[in-house]
Structure formats: structure tokens, C-alpha cells
Write a structure and sequence with these properties.
With 180 residues, this protein is an alpha+beta fold. The protein has two helices and nine strands, in the order H-E-E-E-E-E-E-E-E-E-H. It is elongated, with a radius of gyration of 23 Å.
Amino acid sequence: MKIRSLAVTAAAALAVGSAYADSFAFTGSLASTSPTFDRPVASPGVGLSDVGTEVYYDTFTFSVASSGTYDFLSTVVKLGLGAAGNNFTALYAGPFDPASSLTNLVVANDDDPTIGLSGFSTPLTAGLTYTFVTTSSTNGDTFRYSDTINQAVAVPETGRLALMLAGLGVVGFVARRRAA
């Protein structure tokens, strides 16, 4: 009976797998009353944008409890008057300074994969403070947005999963044989 309960516990642990350590969901809007900054281009280290010199922005400051790779996604929900809805996102490790928008920049993205979606995947370290910036690609764009940040969950490799299941099968076979 001990082996059976061990097998059930192992199977349950295998089925549950890893849980999301951190997940954030938030909404906001970029309006003509929002602050502006000169945004970077999508490739960190390249410089500042030629068309996004006074874009509206909003920030979300957070930290994660578990180190790992995180997926970021920003979706335009509703366009403002005259807006193209071309959102742009950037992640900063530490504080975000709109007067120095290249300082602390980790990653940035314009269209993922189309206009109205912006996002990326990047590793984060537990305990550090990050700032996620949602902005527009060009000056004057206004819109409402919905953003999510989720830790990417690793899917077990097929070979590893098969080996674990085979091991559980052997444990079950041995237990049955001993009981007989």
C-alpha cells in the first residue's frame, strides 16, 4: 500500500507541474493629458526614435517572486480619435526616467506580430524592480490598452515524460507482484 500511495503522489505531482509564479494584468489609456517622452527604437542600444519623439506613455512598476522567462503582451482595446493604434512597449530594469529613455532599457517592441499588439519574452530576476512602459509608436496616438505579464511555463520534454511514466509503471508492477 505504501508503494501505491507513493505512485499516486508522484503521478499527481507530475500532472500538476509548475504553477505560475507571477502574473499581472492591467489596463490603462494614453490620452492627450498623458506625459510624453522620446521613446527608444525597438532594438536596445540603437538609439532614439525619429517618429516617436513626444509619445504619450503609461508605466507599471513591479517585481517578481520567481526568476524565469516572462511573456509580455500589450493589446490596443479602443482607439482614440485620429489614432492608428500602433502601440509600443519597453521594459526597464530599475527606474524609468523619461528624460533619459535609454537608461536601464532591457528590451522594446513595436509590432508583435501586427499593429495593435506589442510584446516580447525576456528573463526576469526575482526581487528586482522593473518598469513596463506602454506607449505609442508615433506622436499623437491615443488609445486604451490591456497588458499582461505571465511567467512562461516549461513543458516537460516528451522523452523525460515517457521515462517518468515508465518508472511509475515499474513501481506499480513491483507492488502488484509483491501483493500476490
